[in-house]
Amino acid sequence: MTDLLARPATRSRFELGKNRKENHPWEIRVVKHPPRTRSAHFVAARKTAIRILEEMQADDDELPYGPGPWEMHHGGSLWVKGDAGWRMYRARVGVEWSAQFCADPAKIDRLRQEAADLITGFPATLDALDELGYKRARKLLDTPIEDADGVEAWTDSLFNSCVPLTTPDHSGVLPKAAGEHHYPWPIKAADYFRYDDFQLWVTLPDGTNAGVTPVGRRGSGEGGLRIVHARHGSAAGDAVAEAQRRHMMAVVPPDSPIALAAFEQQIPRGARTAAGPLHTRRRASTGGARGGTPR
């Protein structure tokens, strides 16, 4: 397969040049670190989040990211309770646990203020959290963050640390699954709203993985794919980077193995191109996690 770049309008194509190599070697060391302990802030937040999720299940409410078992992701979890029950919104940014050590308290305090503004619109929230035993919520929302202790309390609070994800969606690595910790959020987010019969993550001929999106709307018959994420230093990664520099798109044609894999459940068995009328079909479960690459 030849990697191609195409202008969105004219679709003029050209082949890529040779791959570039790094001139300055570097190294990284994988080391052991002291065991990470759960802070009292996080223990209380996680306990409360589990109770909220169990309450949502009992009420047959739709869960934010599907059924458990869950791991709690420090992704900016703004839990509120309104007339329709519990809901979780995402903060402007989430504070990953290790990122707290480079966090400016004044910038984290802005997140606190924004959370407080949102929760003001859901006046039942704080009383409901009191009933669940999370009585520290009011203090967290009302106390300005001015130092590392304040940053830690916010980082491990219910309003940051409790995005309920499965292990694959939280920390999975392709080809099994694309976890939020390892793949860009603008691409990973599509895992939560894509059609079930479209494969967002595919394996490329060189064995690396990429995130792809259709070049046209569903049913258009286009069949081509845009590569929206690929490993840096790979052929596809170079294509994406060059396309970005030239204000173009890195695309693959509908008869490529990549397109056939991504549209596998939308085309007839044995089809040699992904272009053509939409042909939906059920596919037996492989037992893999959502977001995994096709067999």
TrEMBL record:
<feature type="region of interest" description="Disordered">
    <location>
        <begin position="270"/>
        <end position="295"/>
    </location>
</feature>
<dbReference type="Pfam" id="PF19988">
    <property type="entry name" value="DUF6424"/>
</dbReference>
<protein>
    <submittedName>
        <fullName>Uncharacterized protein</fullName>
    </submittedName>
</protein>
<dbReference type="InterPro" id="IPR046309">
    <property type="entry name" value="DUF6424"/>
</dbReference>
